[in-house]
């Protein structure tokens, strides 16, 4: 006998974004020292004093702080210096402490390097990072236009190697997108911005909270009951990577028409209930299959980092 189950109705109210007060930490945040400027990195720090760094130009603003291009007056080495003001709100401060913790743990050619973390007497926090002279993939896309499959294959390989390193150290990034992938003139790509990342204690720790950029969230992050049963917490990074690579190829965010921004509710419905974005007809079969392996709505069916590293699109020779 065949039993038909009534389709579950999604409670849209349950999918609303949490109130800012719900995101506040339930524990007091550590306060920086108030007497001296302190370098709190490990023994691998290459910058001894914040005073050695001279500001060259502003690279960007956001998330409670400013990023500067700086030069070491003694060695002439160039870095990116992220400065977070002491009067930023608790959410931003919690994110910067999380990023500091992860940066201390990572050492990979595919992850942006940290050369020093300093806390000023004023309470400001300064993080000296590896300088990538071409900016982000988002910047390159806006300046140069769409990427060829050959370039995307190279980018995919590097990001997958970075994710393989992070995942093997039980770190989930949770905000993979073009603006969080740094690039230099040699087209070396490095994962950056760990403000919403998570260090997993167990493989199946939940990662379905509303952190990161909504546009690149996987379906199970919006609706874990439907798409997240027994899912691996690292699968969300793969979905975000698939959308990122598709955006580089198409020239715009895959779930919205070119030049158009959609509201959160429309975006959520498109990700959870709409069809998976399809590639243009000029895409190769290898690239099309690779994207399909990343954008499986059922997180269990989504390919892992190691599986994707062996995919022909990454390991073969895609068309230029």
Mean pLDDT: 79
Determine the strand fraction and express it as a percent band: 15-25%
Please give the share of residues in helix. Answer: 25-40%
The overall strand count is 10
Order of adjacent strands in the largest pleated sheet: 1-5-6-4-3-2
Q: Radius of gyration, Cα only, in angstroms?
A: 21 Å
* Largest sheet, strands/sense/barrel: 6 strands, antiparallel
Query: Architecture of the largest domain, according to CATH?
Result: Orthogonal Bundle
- Number of helical elements: 10
Q: What is the total domain count?
A: 2
Low-confidence stretches: 1-8, 12-45, 200-212
As for the CATH topology of the largest domain, it is: Transferase(Phosphotransferase), domain 1
Distance from N terminus to C terminus (CA atoms, Å) equals 54 Å
State the secondary-structure class.
alpha+beta
Estimate the global geometry from the Cα principal axes: globular
Q: List the secondary-structure elements in sequence, H or E.
A: EEEEHEEHHEEEEHHHHHHH
- Going by CATH, the homologous superfamily of the largest domain would be Transferase(Phosphotransferase) domain 1
What CATH first level of the largest domain would be assigned?
A: Mainly Alpha
């Amino acid at each position: 006998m065949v039993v038909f189950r009534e389709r579950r109705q999604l409670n849209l109210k349950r999918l609303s974004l949490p109130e800012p007060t719900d995101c506040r930490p339930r524990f007091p945040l550590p306060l920086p020292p108030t007497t001296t400027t302190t370098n709190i990195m490990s023994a691998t720090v290459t910058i001894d004093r914040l005073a050695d760094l001279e500001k060259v130009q502003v690279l960007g603003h956001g998330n409670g702080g400013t990023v500067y291009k700086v030069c070491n007056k003694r060695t002439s080495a160039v870095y990116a210096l992220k400065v977070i003001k002491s009067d930023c709100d608790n959410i931003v401060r919690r994110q910067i402490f999380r990023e500091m913790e992860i940066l201390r743990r990572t050492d990979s050619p595919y992850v942006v390097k940290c050369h020093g973390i300093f806390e000023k007497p004023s309470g400001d926090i300064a993080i000296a990072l590896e300088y990538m002279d071409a900016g982000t993939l988002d910047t390159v896309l806006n300046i140069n236009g769409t990427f060829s499959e050959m370039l995307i294959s190279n980018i995919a390989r590097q990001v997958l190697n970075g994710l393989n390193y992070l995942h093997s150290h039980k770190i989930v990034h949770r905000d993979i997108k073009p603006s969080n992938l740094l690039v230099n003139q040699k087209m070396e790509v490095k994962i950056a911005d760990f403000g919403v990342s998570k260090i997993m204690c167990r493989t199946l720790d939940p990662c379905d909270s509303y952190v990161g950029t909504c546009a690149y969230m996987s379906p199970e992050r919006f609706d874990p009951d439907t798409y997240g049963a027994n899912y691996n917490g690292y699968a969300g990074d793969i979905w975000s990577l698939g959308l990122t690579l598709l955006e580089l190829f198409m020239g715009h965010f895959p779930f919205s028409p070119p030049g158009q921004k959609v509201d959160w509710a429309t975006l959520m419905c498109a990700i959870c209930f709409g069809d998976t974005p399809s590639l243009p007809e000029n895409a190769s079969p290898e690239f099309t299959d690779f994207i399909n392996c990343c954008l499986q709505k059922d997180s269990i069916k989504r390919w892992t980092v190691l599986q994707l590293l062996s995919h022909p699109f990454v390991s073969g020779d895609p068309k230029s």
